[in-house]
From TrEMBL:
A Pfam match: PAS
GO annotation (BP), single: regulation of DNA-templated transcription
Sites where the protein binds Zn(2+) 2: 595
Family statement drawn from the similarity comment of this UniProt entry: Belongs to the cyclic nucleotide phosphodiesterase family. PDE8 subfamily.
Cofactor: a divalent metal cation
Molecular function per GO: 3',5'-cyclic-nucleotide phosphodiesterase activity; metal ion binding
InterPro entries per the UniProt record, alphabetical: CheY-like_superfamily, HD/PDEase_dom, PAS, PAS-like_dom_sf, PAS_fold, PDE8-like_REC_N, PDEase, PDEase_catalytic_dom
Ranges of Polar residues composition bias in the record: 360-371
Protein name (database record): Phosphodiesterase
Low complexity biased stretches: 25-43
Amino acid sequence: MGCASSIHISESRVVYHSGKESEDSNSPNQTNTTATQSQQQGNPVPGLFIKSSSTSTYKTAFTEVQFGPMKLHVDQLQVLLVFAKEDSQSNGFCWACEKAGFRCNTAKTPESALESFLEKHHDIIIIDHRHSRNFDAEALCRSIRAATSSENTVIVAVVRRQDREDASVMPLVNAGFNRRYIENTNIMTCYNELLQLEHGEVRAQFKLRACNTIFTALEQSQEAIEITSEDHVIQYVNPAYESIMGYQQGELLGKDITEVPKSENNKADLLDTINSCIKIGKEWQGIYYAKKKNGDSIQQNVKITPVIGQGGKIRHYVSIKRPLHDNNKADKSSERVQAESQTDIQSCKHKDRRKGSLDVKSTTSRGSDGSSQRRHSSMARIHSMTIEAPITKVINIINAAQESSPMPVAEALDRVLEILRTTELYSPQFGAKDEDPHTSNLVGGLMTDGLRRLSGNEYLLATKHPHHIPSHLITPLSLNDIPPRVAQTMENEDSWDFDICKLEGATIKRPLVYLGLKVFSRFGVCEFLNCSEVTLRSWLQVIEANYHQTNSYHNSTHSADVLHATAYFLGKERVKQSLDQIDEVAALIAATVHDVDHPGRTNSFLCNAGSELAILYNDTAVLESHHAALAFQLTTRDEKCNIFKNMERQVNSDVILFFIYIYIYRNEYRTLRQAIIDMVLATEMTKHFEHVNKFVNSINKPLAALEENGVSKVK
């Protein structure tokens, strides 16, 4: 059969002509005839306008499709037309394929159609279902579906237009058809049908075909992988899971995970902890004991990730489990590891790098043999986890050095590891002395001015500094070594459309340090304050560490959001003309610290509750006063993060010149400090309308004065 002399378009855009007796285009007679020339040889559909090859626009040989993180290349689509005889409908699809740039083959009989499909594996098969006397279309569809290669093929049935519109499509669906096409010979209708198939069913089938590669990766993975539904029904386990746990896949699929035997070595509340974490969409990672089919318990490093699906809801849970090949000599050691994996439950940050840094407790013994064995045990635990934090890299290096070191050196390194485990790496430690306890309390009260956050968001005067940089935040960071993913997220930070939530995700809820470094650099804050980028980085880390991540709104992400908005307005040309650099610097710093240490309660709540903060600030702008005061306390407490320390410059020359410098720069610092305090205090909502009215008046009065002087327009 042929469509208008059986025109077939090759991948190189060469037109083929098949004779009338040909049932398939598998072996056409190749010519270099263009589509325009073919009009002279055949009888194309009336009213069809054929462009010459020089003016036709065709699709490229392949297109790119994004499937999650995968980038796939789609080759030119292949279409098989199965019509017993040539008519206007088959010609319509033929010309539509040419217009769409698809490769088209034709077949007259079921045998030739099946043979052509098994050879070329077409993406779309269109079967004539209008005339049952020629061949059985449904039987042909079943034959094609019987071939395993047809799993991702889209099959369309062309049916006759009926007077009744209530005919069911289920017989076609049961036969294996994907779609029904009601007879219509219009070229554009056929063309639009092909386009819908390409971007609908064919594209979806192409993505499903790509899933085979993902399943292959899962099957070959050495880690045990388990996938469950949102109701914790097991949907998939890979061969590694079967090998480790001793179960067969058929024994687990469709079974509720609660029906699988559990190990008694886990703490009673561990499952509740895991469920409370993953149900809110947070990832959980930690140590978990599982029971194998033979009844043995196995210690595993488990990572459970919720998968968000339709409707933005959790639809699956993916668990990756890796056995910990420890000696398991003492239950006490195992319990300690498990307890450490449950720290910071509220924020659900169960990360291997934290446990890795804590597992080195086993090296603290001073015994010779025991110390060596515990070092090996600690080393095994650390290397069995996926650790990337710099502090754990240091610990790994120290552990490796201990293996070949003499005992005095190994014991000294044990002490180093003990120090590294603490979170007070930058806080001075004073040696304890036997002295009067009353004197100690009095001196301690005079020396400390920190605040300790208690449950219920109440505050008491503390006897030690509570605000320290967590160990996982003390990492080398500058504009030059910001991770690529974070840098890419901040590319448009000077735009109003900048998405702070994406930055929060990319930085693992630490957006303030990264965004602060970039914004402060853009406005030359370090140059103005005469401080190094290292000092600025330390200051940003301290400030961000004192924002509570458990606070759902007034956290460091909110601070970064306000900093971005402030920088956006400061970047406007008319604003620049009205402000000095000291005003810009004050605004950026105020935006950064304006909600530091926010307890998640309002001023009214604190006043009514009689909190220490409300008493300290006389029930007036309680939180705003606390934010401003604490910001300067944190800044000036440590020289390493004091960004203001160089504003009072020392001059080793004439005494008069010295006092001139001191006067200028002290006044500059006081001006900056007062501006920061004023801006933070202005965030109190009871003063909102007062400040807005003052701002409007400050704009309207100069404009009115200019108009009076004859200036009608201010640019």
